[in-house]
Write a structure and sequence with these properties.
There is one protein chain. This protein has helices at residues 3-24, 29-48, 51-70, 74-104, 109-117, 132-137, 144-149, 153-167, 172-198, 200-215, 218-248, 253-270, 277-287, 292-305, 310-325, 331-347, 353-368, 375-379, 383-411, 419-427. Helix 2 (29-48) packs across helix 10 (200-215), helix 3 runs parallel beside helix 8 and helix 4 packs antiparallel against helix 19 (383-411). It has one domain (3-427): Proton glutamate symport protein (Orthogonal Bundle), CATH 1.10.3860. It is mainly α. The protein is built from 20 helices and no strands.
Length: 429
């Protein structure tokens, strides 16, 4: 039995137990809730303690990986530029679509109110309304250590980006040692996260028990609503890949559908873009006629550092949590969250799928002033939205490859020999 299944079963069992105890008026329920809150908080705090060192290490490693990819040549550099632009577009789509969905199809009011009441009043400090000049003045961390101690995630991300790019300019031996150090720090944090996630069924059970006792079966309704909203955002990103292929890649719509179908089926069954890579390469070469040099370079790069649906889905989760918690989001706050979502997506190279959810969403929430307290409950139901995340990502990967192939043919380029093998090795590591 997978850990995701164990977590989901714990969620269901916790909600059922809490609801039943509350409906029966169990005399021990108040003491049980105190114990459940304490155990749930203990588990969640163990997860939160990894945020700052993990995010900084991932950003530095992400910059190093992207710089290595860009050094492969003109096609790789052009692909990296497209990756960044499409990730930004993905975040913009979510920033517009998610509030629209929540406005015209809000979550069940009673359950949302009850769930929002579970968030401590001081759990988040919503960003204050400040001028653009004042906001820009807060971006550069005068004291990075203080920024880390205060959880100023956007400042940490910006410092990590500057640190990573500057590390690429020092001597080769020193650069290898420095990048290796931060890769080791990131891997160490991931080991801790794996340990904490191994105990997730226990933590989620007690968190869900408290939710069930206080909200009843309404919790199931709001979780179902959450699944539909996040999946809709990911589905929208996937649908936008089709005009990208048709217009930018000059591929007939039906032809692209046939080429994308096999990798989409693999993505649905495995929830892994890496597992979908062989099907994507076959569809690109055999169905779309994309030169092997382009498909063999761009697609492994995309699997390694380009997750088209990641900014959209992660930002949507943060917006959803803000809505349930009753936190208004200004345009500036959404912009800051979008920028963080793009940076974190590029930095998430090599992060195991079991920890991606927390490590990529929590920084966005912290930047936007959204409490993390309800995030553990969403981990348990992430399997369904993750299917749409993966399908959207693989479809966009294939569409972008067709776009780059057009420019490749127009340039009259020769096959980037040597880069093919390097990209494959970098992409699947």
């Amino acid at each position: 039995m997978s850990n995701s299944t164990r977590i989901l079963m714990s969620l269901v069992a916790g909600v059922l137990a809490g609801t039943i105890f509350a409906s029966l008026g169990a005399p021990f329920l108040p003491r049980m809730l105190i114990f459940a809150d304490a155990v749930g908080k203990l588990w969640f705090d163990a997860l939160r303690m990894t945020i700052v060192p993990l995010i900084f290490a991932l950003v530095v490693n992400g910059v190093a990986s992207a710089a290595g990819v860009a050094s492969m040549g003109r096609l790789a550099g052009r692909a990296l530029l497209w990756f960044t632009l499409l990730l930004a577009a993905s975040a913009v789509v979510s920033a517009i679509l998610t509030p629209f969905l929540l406005t015209f199809w809000p979550p069940p009011a009673s359950a949302a109110k009850a769930l929002g009441a579970l968030v401590p009043p001081n759990a988040a400090i919503a960003p204050q309304s400040v001028s653009l000049a004042d906001w820009l003045g807060t971006l550069i961390p005068v004291n990075p250590v203080s920024a880390a101690a205060n959880g100023a995630i956007l400042q940490i991300v910006l410092f990590g980006l500057a640190f990573g790019f500057s590390a690429m300019q020092i001597g080769k031996d020193e650069r290898i040692q420095l990048v290796g150090l931060f890769r080791g720090i990131g891997d160490t944090m991931l080991v801790i996260v794996h340990w904490v996630l191994w105990a997730a069924p226990v933590g989620v059970f007690f968190l869900a028990l408290a939710v069930g006792a206080r909200t009843g079966f309404g919790a199931a309704g709001i979780l179902a609503h959450y699944i539909v909203v996040i999946s809709t955002v990911c589905l929208t990103v996937m649908l936008l890949a089709y005009p990208l292929a048709v217009i930018g890649g000059r591929v007939a719509f039906a032809r692209f559908c046939r080429a994308a179908a096999p990798s989409q089926m693999v993505a649905i069954s495995t929830q892994s873009s890496l597992a979908s890579l062989p099907a994507m390469i076959e569809g690109a070469q055999d169905s779309l006629g994309i030169p092997p040099g382009v498909a063999g370079l761009v697609l492994p790069m995309a699997v390694a550092i380009f997750r088209a649906s990641s900014p959209a889905a992660n930002l949507a989760v943060a917006i959803y949590l803000a809505h349930v918690s009753g936190i208004p989001l200004s345009i500036g706050t959404l912009a800051a969250g979008s920028a963080t979502a793009v940076a974190i997506s590029l930095a998430g190279v090599g992060v195991a799928s079991s920890v991606t959810f927390f490590s990529t969403i929590s920084p966005i929430c912290l930047v936007m002033g959204v409490p993390l307290d309800l995030l553990p409950l969403l981990i348990a139901v992430e399997t369904i939205p993750d299917i749409f995340r993966t399908v959207a990502t693989t479809t966009t990967d294939l569409a972008l490859t067709s776009v780059l192939a057009v420019r490749y043919r127009n340039d009259g380029s020769t096959s980037p020999a040597g880069n093919h093998e390097k990209a494959l090795n970098a992409g699947v590591s």
